[in-house]
């Protein structure tokens, strides 16, 4: 099977040999993807001219209805997508749900936001500034859709959610999307786009797909275009340098890797609900999607006085995690997506061995040599204050490290040693501890999840990105920001200060939704 790209309103094949996609459990090749020789510049023109014009002619409410129709088309084929995710990504049913249902939920969330903005096409910030002594000259800030194309480059671990969360924001803003999933798991992205195209719910040029290399994509962009990138810091660096050298200066936002932490507050004691809640979350970090989540907990910061009990309890839970065929309902942990990812994860666990010791490992069943399986591995770092790799290296698999701390000040210092992360969770009953974490760790994180007994199990999870909340983090995490409900539209729109008289400004307000972004 050869994956195709959907460009300029038609399915097209590359002319090269392509790169293989494999069955994660067996390592057997299942498809190839290649975009060699495809007319990317022509596809971008088509998206800008046809898709952009079609979207800008629609109101926010109409774009919301379009997103709802996309979500419905995908919902109808949900079970088939689960089978693809199992084969190509090694997902268990629960893993696949994070990616597939997460994508559909995000589309539906943005569909609802479209209804909220109603039959308007631009956004007006609340309030106005008087600029002259007499009340005849004012300024209002207006957000208008950029007439460009949104190029969306995604990582291999979210072939559904990664694509649809970006498409949802761009579409609602009125900008056409050209999605480029990672080749290794593009089977699901291609199947989903095929179904959406076949359902005829999206106007020509609004949605394009490249199944193959992303080379040549960024250099073809103009001043109204943008790149939303999710992936490794190494690729992010290449793209940053490329964009920095372009006179057209397309916008670039980066979601990169991150060595996220969870903290058990200094007040937590065994037997408390928050102790068990933290344990539960830590086990998820070593099992859900085989640890291949950018927001996953990589470091578990525990007060020194309860470290033994916590680590002992967690080790017991990790060692019985059932690893195996994702098709088997009793399996908790499937394989990584391929051998290359397995080797990379094992190499990074090995690199951590200078600073950590293995505390527990799940049993790896007999698996194919060419499969992606990695045994869930719990590590302990005895000297977290002097460690460096443990704070900087992301093992993109089922692995996390316990680090003991003396007091909250040290816990805060250790958390910031990752130099900027996507998400931090704190398990504590102490409002003072929570307030300090928000003040001192907020600047280092895109999202903070505070769990106490009142929240209990009702929380959505450390690793789960909710479309209502911003996603992205400073520093190592890339410095980008996506989602956050309507905040996600900012990247695709231009804010202009519009200066003029009261009559003119009143006319502009008639066609705009008044809304703070
Ligand atoms: P990657 O190797 O950096 O690849 C990411 C994407 O960039 C792929 O689609 C890749 O295409 C493409 N790409 C590579 N070089 C390019 C170039 N020169 N021009 C244009 N596109 C290019 O990352 P990955 O291995 O897929 O993903 C794993 C990483 O992503 C992890 O570190 C994880 O933490 C991070 N991640 C972050 C988030 C977040 O939201 N912050 C979410 C998920 C994952 P090919 O497949 O064709 O090489």
Q: Topology, pairings included?
A:
Layout (H helix, E strand, L loop, with lengths): L4 E3 L2 E3 L6 E4 L6 E5 L6 H17 L3 H16 L2 H12 L3 H25 L4 E3 L4 E2 L7 E8 L4 E4 L7 H13 L3 E4 L5 H13 L8 E3 L16 E5 L2 H12 L6 E5 L4 E5 L8 H13 L11 E7 L3 H13 L19 H14 L3 E6 L15 E5 L7 H4 L6 E7 L2 H9 L4 E7 L3 H11 L3 E7 L18 E2 L10 E2 L9 E8 L1 H9 L1 E3 L3
Parallel strand pairs: 5-23, 8-9, 8-11, 9-10, 11-12, 13-14, 13-18, 14-17, 16-17, 18-19
Antiparallel strand pairs: 1-2, 3-4, 5-7, 6-7, 7-22, 15-16, 20-21
Helix pairs in contact: 2-4, 2-5, 3-4, 3-6, 4-5, 8-9, 12-13
The protein binds NADP nicotinamide-adenine-dinucleotide phosphate.
The site of NADP nicotinamide-adenine-dinucleotide phosphate (NAP) has 26 residues, from helix 7.
Written description of the protein model:
The longest helix has 25 residues, at 93-117. The model has no long low-confidence stretch (mean pLDDT 97). The protein is of the alpha/beta class. The chain is globular and about 70 Å long. It contains 14 helices and 23 strands. It binds NADP nicotinamide-adenine-dinucleotide phosphate.
